[in-house]
């Protein structure tokens, strides 16, 4: 008994080739049709084309990450009903092609956020980082969002102001580009002069309303997913707290419990990302795994190091590298008998590697071997 070893691949334009991925020991590919605009149907022809490319390399398309949820669906405005119908057809087409796990998220505007993609660690490795004071500085002094300061504690406002006053023009531009232009896997990027207007479209949507929109969406699509043999796996908010005053609704155990009880169907499940939930030290990842194990359809395993309140950087996978106990996380998966897809998530950039930040070859390959070794050791010790 083991989990399925999978690997995030960004398609033909990914610097990492399918041949290289196969050499890591992964057998499954996690990918999406990034060239299709959000909201449009993924045709059978396009799905089959990508599937054939993966299978020709000796691998299989195990998970879709992601079929993006159009912003109109999240806001329940304009063409949201059309986009829901398109989403249903995409699920039918994926199921028809034997692709039965779909990861998605319901984060408004930005799906995940960092403040630097190339933060240099003491040993020269590069890692993704989220610094709350720098994010606040962007919000208050670059974006200049009205009322932004009230969303931050006074001590952080002071730190943000100090950062902004001392940062070079190049540093400010780098921060702006990182926040607005999208991270690996993001489906959209923004210009500064349009970003506030996009945020304003959520001004009447609070946490409860966004949750109601998610539940409406799920009640529409889950019956189709089940009929098509597809399992939906929602990715937690990253980071798991409000940004730009926008609501976050999948950030802790209570949110998970509510989500799974409102639409209590096996096809409605989780993509449990240890790093996303783990950015909040109050979240116990092993406890979440044990409580909701039968609804976890996809496992993202990565480690982070907490540097202070709402500030963290990503690390190598081993427990001694970060703040999360990866041994206990893998043991929890073993205890529940998890056999679904797992991927090593967000590696550092090491050995002068070039590629998408956080999605290079070397550190994720090391992470996959580490996770496989943990799994083997834990399961053999139980015999």
Structure characterization notes:
The chain is of the alpha/beta class. It folds into two domains: 4-113 and 207-381, TIM Barrel (Alpha-Beta Barrel), CATH 3.20.20; 128-198, no CATH class. The chain has helices spanning 18-23, 44-56, 71-75, 80-96, 132-142, 154-166, 169-180, 192-200, 207-228, 253-262, 274-278, 285-292, 326-335, 362-381; strands at residues 4-8, 28-31, 60-65, 101-104, 116-120, 126-130, 231-234, 268-273, 296-301, 304-308, 311-314, 341-344. Strands 1-2-3-4-7-8-9-12 form an eight-stranded parallel beta barrel. The protein has a four-stranded antiparallel sheet with strand order 5-6-11-10. A hairpin with a 2-residue loop joins strand 10 (304-308) and strand 11. Helix 13 (326-335) packs across helix 14. The chain starts with a strand and ends with a helix. The model has no long low-confidence stretch (mean pLDDT 94).
